[in-house]
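task queued by scheduler; priority normal; single chain, no ligands, no partner chains; default sampling; output format set to structure tokens
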Amino acid sequence: MTRTDQLTDITELSTTPRRRKVLISGASIAGPALAFWLNRHGFAVTVVEKAGALRGGGYPIDVRGTALEVVRRMGILPRLKDAHIDLRRLTFLDGDGSEVASVNPHTLTGGVGGQDIEVRRGDLTDALYAAVRDDVEFLFDDSIDTFDQSGHGVDVTFRGGSRRTFDMVFGADGLHSRTREFLFGPEEQFHRYLGYCFAGFTLRNTFGLCAEVMMWNTPGRAAALYAVGGTDDVHGFLNFARPEPPFDAFRNPEAQRDLVSAVFADAGWEVPGMLAAMRDADDLFFDAVSQIRMPRWSRGRVALVGDAAYAPSFLTGQGSSLALVGAYMLAGSLADRDHAAGFAAYEHHTREFVTVNQDQVGKGDAALFPTTARALEQRNDMLRNLSAMPASKGRPAHSALTLPEFTPVT
């Protein structure tokens, strides 16, 4: 090699921009979606996930409005359409098990038939992972133990003992985010409890249900059976009002089972069988119905996305959609900006969309889960009127943000 060739190589190396290295904590929905878009914008991406593998199956979730455009741009919309659950009806029952009303699901949820998508959570996470797995480093069965921003990057120590430095770190680790706790302190200061707790689990479909939901109510309590299709299993949900969140039960599955069993001890309909199935379920998920509301979503070189920053609660049906849109906006905002300017742009352009969707729950007294006999009767009257109405044309909140075009690195 001549001296001229050596100088040319050195010049090319010096003018080639270094790929910024980033770490994402969480491989559910927001994490892989953010990884996809950051990779498109030229970042070197690592995703760390505390579970040993992707979580399959799971309860049904919705992709609506602006989020549909995100998954279309990702190229996974056809796959999600193939996995779509075409829910036929939602039937409400009184305390004695008699039918109150049967309604079109889209009429109630504000979804748009033929456009919005409902899939099992695992189908969405599988599609996101497949779209990015060949371009991004995934570290399963590990998590962030500590991080330090005192230098020129973020020095991360992993639970497994390794240490690495990244230009930025992102918390996509859910409602009870450890990244958020590291960054801003205890969850309680951002946790907006909406007055309910719920338990979800899978049980055998001995009810003859197919592509439908049956929901039983008494004041302050609800039990639902959700049949995705003609499958052998159904999703069971038990929801109940409670003045304060049961913090002592959040990390204790047996305490969760005891609490739910006590609340529904005298319930009728199919609830006794649901309680028995819950006792044996290996996929029990228990949590408070709540939101995360934060004055800012970043500090230094670390930012939050999805439920970690702005969980809207399942009452809005928008958790997955906000995660997808937030990931797109965060990555695009950083494409041609440093971390400080990029994080500021992310919040500036995304916060209004987040707020209008979080506000769909009103002040927390969810219309579907009344806590008094009078409120329950009012809800039932509303449902009887809805049963005669056509499907909704959609809620403006779901599509309140028009996605900007961010030019990917080629």
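post-processing summary
- DSSP finds 13 helices and 18 strands in the chain.
- Confidence is low (pLDDT under 50) at residues 3-15.
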